[in-house]
């Protein structure tokens, strides 16, 4: 059963889910909880990629702003903005990592009943 058939089964309210194989996922997915976990993990992965991009972009902003200070000697606004962006990007990475840990912990509790 592919993903589209799975969605058709879900919308029709049928009980036989069969197995769904998603690209990039090593195991077969047999219930809705597995689908939700895969979607959450993909979303957190994409968010992590954006956060890393934001860190790189902030670093480039900081490097180029430092060059502006050397030329004009009075443009600390760009440096301050770059530092703030970098701090928020790092906070984003921390939040994403904590989200991943919490999701894995809750999934373990729900599936096995153990914390």
Describe this structure in words.
The protein is built from 3 helices and no strands. It is mainly alpha-helical. The protein folds into 2 domains: 1-30, no CATH class; 39-112, Orthogonal Bundle (Helix Hairpins), CATH 1.10.287. The radius of gyration is 22 Å and the shape is elongated. It has helices spanning 3-12, 32-72, 76-112.
Summarize the structure.
With 115 residues, the protein is an all-alpha fold. Helix content is 77%, strand content 0%.
Features:
115 residues, mainly alpha, Helix Hairpins, 2 domains
Helical residue percent? over 70%
For the largest beta-sheet, the strand count, sense and barrel status come to:
none
Q: Report the CATH topology name of the largest domain.
A: Helix Hairpins
Structural class: mainly alpha
- The N- and C-terminal alpha carbons lie at a distance of 33 Å
Taken from the alpha-carbon principal axes, the silhouette is: elongated
In total, how many domains does the architecture comprise?
2
Note the total helix count: 3
Low-confidence stretches: none
CATH architecture of the largest domain: Orthogonal Bundle
CATH class of the largest domain: Mainly Alpha
Average pLDDT for all residues: 77
From N to C, what is the helix and strand string?
HHH
Strand content: under 5%
Compute the number of strand runs: 0
Round the Cα radius of gyration to an integer and report it: 22 Å
SSE arrangement:
Elements: H1 3-12, H2 32-72, H3 76-112
């Amino acid at each position: 059963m592919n993903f589209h058939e799975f969605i058709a089964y879900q919308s029709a309210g049928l009980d036989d889910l069969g197995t769904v194989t998603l690209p990039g996922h090593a195991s077969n997915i047999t219930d809705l909880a597995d689908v939700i976990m895969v979607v959450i993990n993909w979303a957190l992965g994409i968010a992590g990629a954006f956060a890393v991009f934001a860190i790189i972009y902030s670093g480039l902003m900081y490097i180029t702003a430092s060059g502006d200070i050397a030329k004009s000697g009075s443009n600390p606004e760009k440096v301050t903005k770059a530092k703030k962006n970098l701090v928020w990007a790092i906070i984003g990475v921390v939040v994403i990592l904590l989200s991943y840990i919490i999701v894995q912990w809750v999934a373990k509790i729900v599936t096995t009943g153990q914390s």
